[in-house]
Amino acid sequence: MNYKIIGTDGNTYGPASVEQIRQWIVQGRLESQTPVFVDGASEWTFIGLLPEFAKNFPGTTPQVIAPPKAVVVPSMKTNGFATAGFVCGLLSLPFCCCCCGCPFNVLGLIFSIIALVQINAAVEKPEGRGLALAGLICSAVSLLLSFGFGLLQVATSPARGLWHLDQF
Fold first, then answer.
1. pLDDT tens across 124-139, in order?
2. Which of 115, 117, 107, 144 lies closest to 131 in space, CA to CA?
3. What CATH number should be reported for the domain whose range is 3-54?
4. Residue 32's closest CA among 13, 16, 54?
């Protein structure tokens, strides 16, 4: 039977006979954890695990260590309402000085609040808490600015209709 080994230098040596392998063990050139491939085998193993060489190594034979199994981590999905609240909050900021900001900031507030309630109630917390908070803040700022600009327009515009005091 012939054997191939991988030396400490990373090179493959062999084919080698049983006598030559035993000689290398006596010379200290091989350890029990030296990788070996036996002709006819399907995979590499450690030389110390082979019955014909196990008794040549002092101490215990090396334990077979199974390769680590891939751990599948379930991907956490981002809460859809958090994304919608964030997008609406961002869209509401440029339009807050006119009436166009009003539907976006109101929707942003509603979606962000729903997202925060869903995220806090979930057992496995989905992602999106930061998006929901950002959408909530952007929507609230936009709503406040819209009211401020609206009040400013009313205060600075020429009086019309009921706002004109000279009519009374």
1. 778 889 999 999 999 8
2. 115
3. 3.30.1490.40
4. 54
